[in-house]
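Feature request disguised as a bug: please show the residue count (279) next to ABC transporter ATP-binding protein in the output. Example input:
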Amino acid sequence: MSLEVSNLDVHYGRTRALRGVSLAVAPGEAVGVIGETGSGKSTLARAIVGLVRPSAGRIVVDGEEVSAYNARQWRALRRRGTVQYVFQDPLRSLDPDLSVEESIVEPLLIRGGSRREAAERARALLARVHLDEALLARLPGELSGGQRQRVTVARALVTDPRVIILDEPVSALDAANRVRALEFFKELRDGGTALVFISHDLGSVAGVADRIAVLYQGEIVEDGPARTVVNAPRHAYTRLLVGSAPTLRSAAAARSSRADRAERAALRELLQTIGGQAS
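Example output, currently without the count:
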């Protein structure tokens, strides 16, 4: 098991942000954690990577129980890169004074790797995220939003993580780049990396997630196969999310631009793939 969260509680003072949350993510599985602002999804992600200490419950990452780790143990785990967090804003999460290559290889150099090996790894990872090697010398401010987002994913991949948490991974992208990102995340999933998508928009991850967990007021109110959650939601809040997701509405109600049509086609194809895997 790559990730297992059991009966997790998180308090901020007297406020309980998470209540008895349980979530399991297997190797090569993609799980979407969906909820509105304030639902607790970012708190869950931060607890998994040790940025928030749980009040109760257990977190196990790749066989290690990390929920009771102290600061030194968390630093050691982060250096190993077992779990990686890709933040929502790629421009703010990249050092503006470091080149793309320097940003990607920094985790390896911190672990004591050689610069030559790190440079080779950077070139290989840039190709893996479908970016040209010429971008290695550029600064983050010289890249498009879609390119910056893929650079942050390349940096996360440099340590061969078992789990990657992606916070609102496509919210800042236009429709065409969103399709490319969803296809790339599917490649990562198929390659054996466990993915956790944190998002407020069910439609943005429905096509690439194997399972969807819906967070509402700090509790998981629905958890099941993506196709089931989208097509037959049980909880009233989930039904509201499905109804408000543009990519999950009828074609007549959706916009008709070429990029939007491509996005809907990609989402339909991925949902059919998920359905075939589940049957």
